[in-house]
Design a protein that fits this description.
The chain has about 290 residues and is of the alpha+beta class. It is built from 8 helices and 10 strands. Strand 2 and strand 3 form a beta hairpin. InterPro entries: PPM-type-like_dom_sf, PPM-type_phosphatase-like_dom.
């Protein structure tokens, strides 16, 4: 089977939805000519920033990376394309007057990106965006690790304490701010997590690899906004439930299900979280018709 057959016969579903904040900091990557697909989740800097068009640093970072990957060709290296985007992000921050020595001021983005060819699935990943594959026997395989979960948990626990103290929303944010700052300082460090943020150290923490696509049925790419929400008693995200629901409902209907859960829990009492509704972005690639 050649690449052209794969291009003509795979099926793809993708969707992105803005959360409860002003703009969608997520971005989709659908490069059909290069068979490059991905999701990107921009992260707002602790020190707020907006450009003249109203874009936050997180949105700028996610769209910059998405543009790079949309334009890459078959011969380009996934890793090099991501690192080039990281270098350009650094230059853009310098030009915009950002103090790049302060990690809390950096524009950043998590991502999960794949490229499919006739025998291989290549991937690059950072932070908490995730890549999964499903085999024809039903086995689910994670190609990535949520590197941010433990740090988000610390912040959520702090926010629950603040809520129990009866603090207002603004007071809760101030109460959690030291923890948020500490978490950002762990970017691209041992004991921390990888994230595209313009730092040279990002190259040392970027995760990447390749698997063969023999018997791979589906590929899933998701930002953390698509994770099925955890209750206060849940220690881990139920990724199997997320994937099963995407298979049953499709990405758009699954997103609608998550949104309904959030609407029923506006104060994050059942599902503790840092915002009412996160941006939600996902891609599902079905290879069953490609003969893989």
């Amino acid at each position: 089977m050649g690449v052209n057959r794969l291009v003509s016969q795979y099926e793809l579903e993708s969707y992105t939805l803005k959360g409860s904040r002003e703009i969608n900091e997520d971005a989709l990557i659908v490069n059909k000519s290069g068979l490059v697909f991905g999701v990107v989740d921009g992260a707002t800097s602790v020190t707020p920033y907006k450009d003249v068009n109203g874009n936050t640093g997180g949105a700028i970072a996610s769209n910059l990376l998405a543009k790079h990957m949309e334009e890459m060709n078959d011969s380009s290296s996934l890793v090099e394309a991501v690192l080039q985007a990281n270098r350009e992000l650094r230059q853009l921050m310098v030009q915009s007057g950002i103090d790049i020595s302060d990690k809390t001021k950096l524009w950043s983005a998590a991502f999960a990106i794949v490229r499919v060819n006739q025998t291989k699935l290549e991937y690059v990943q950072a932070a908490d965006s995730m890549v999964f594959v499903k085999y024809i026997d039903g086995t689910i395989r994670a190609l990535s690790h949520d590197q941010v979960s433990s740090f988000d948990t610390l912040t959520i626990k702090k926010s629950l304490v603040a809520r129990d103290l009866g603090l207002s929303s603004d007071e809760q944010f101030s109460y959690c701010l030291p923890t948020i700052r500490d978490n950002r300082k762990k970017a691209n460090t041992l004991g921390g997590y990888s994230v595209l943020n313009g730092e040279e150290a990002f190259a040392d923490f970027l995760e990447y690899g390749a698997i063969n696509i023999s018997n791979v049925e589906r590929i899933y790419l998701v930002t953390d906004g698509l994770f099925y929400p955890k209750t206060i008693n849940d220690s881990h995200t139920d990724f199997m439930k997320m994937i099963n629901m995407i298979d049953q409902e499709g990405i758009l209907n699954y997103i609608n299900t998550l949104t309904s859960l959030e609407e029923l829990d506006p104060n994050a009492e059942v599902y503790p979280r840092l915002k009412k509704s996160d941006d939600k972005t996902g891609i599902m690639i079905d290879l069953r018709k490609a003969g893989c």
